[in-house]
Amino acid sequence: MKKSISNYSIAKLIQQKALDLGYEKCGIIPIEMMVGYEEKFNERTQKVPESQPFYQNQQRLIRFQEEFEWAKSIVVLVKQYSKYHIPESVKGHIAKHYLTDSRTNENTEEFQNSVALEQYMQKLGLRTATNRKFGLVGMRWAALQAGLGIIRRNNFFYTESGSWVSLEAFLTDREMKLIEKPNISPCPPNCNRCIKACSTASLCDAYTMNPLRCISFLTTFGGRNLPNEPVASDFGDWIYGCDMCQDACPMNHKKWTGQKEFPGLLELAPYLTAENILKMDEDFYHKNVQPKFFYLSPDELWKWQVNALNFMDNRYEEHFAPAILKAQESKYDQVREMADRICKKRGLE
Known about the structure:
The chain has 16 helices and six strands. By secondary structure, it is an alpha+beta fold. Among the domains are: 7-172, no CATH class; 273-349, no CATH class. The protein has a four-stranded antiparallel beta sheet, sandwiched between helices. A two-stranded antiparallel ribbon has the order 4-5. Strand 4 and strand 5 (157-158) form a beta hairpin. The longest helix is centred in the first third of the chain and has 15 residues, at 109-123. The model has no long low-confidence stretch (mean pLDDT 96).
């Protein structure tokens, strides 16, 4: 089949299969179209030099061909997660993307569709490679080149559905090209709502951010020393992740439909309140929380609990006091340190 069907026909078959499986968009670019990504990547560290250690770990996205010499094109896909209902107990406290993350959740239709699409491409005779967790290429750049949408001033990728979308990409050994044309208006002139909404000034200018000040970074795989983190007091209501710049964006207005239940979320949500995070034991964390929120490792329940204490400090109410005082007895040094600091600040005994 690989020799008897044209590259364009193969590309169209893949695109149609993706759409049939429920993906919002699918485009395909030759790997040569990734050339400009390195320049854009380097611009980030030039604009915010202190972010260099963060971006150093992302160099693999530029040099993917060193490992995948056989790759000739990239299949880029968009999946929409704004269809899911966010329970009130976690709304505004845990970022919507993390609550509806399907990358490793085999019970979700998105994960199953990803596997089905890869199997379909392989049946067409293609060699494929992907990394469902973190990607193998700069996916926003690849999606931009494929014409699937645009990148707005808050750095998020947008389709006609707004920014509530996830990107996925497969490397293939077939030379293919299938470019779409997005029907999306640019950011409104002089709009800076996303920049104003960023309480830590991580989004310091249009298309520019300092990841070391980003709430999403500092509450997930960064921020290992929140008691001494200067911007921790600016996290507001957020415990894990942040949606502020996306929520503030007028181009996201009425884009969230929230009609469908995400597998397991309704049952898990009550355990993800600040008070219940502080009560959480390691067994429950290992079985139910860590696999879903995999940016924190199996031995980092303490990080969740420090985040929860920081939330309690930022949004202090008297009913938080017993939980904060109890946290002073935690077996985790970091939790005790955070609780002690809050107790001294609030005069709790």
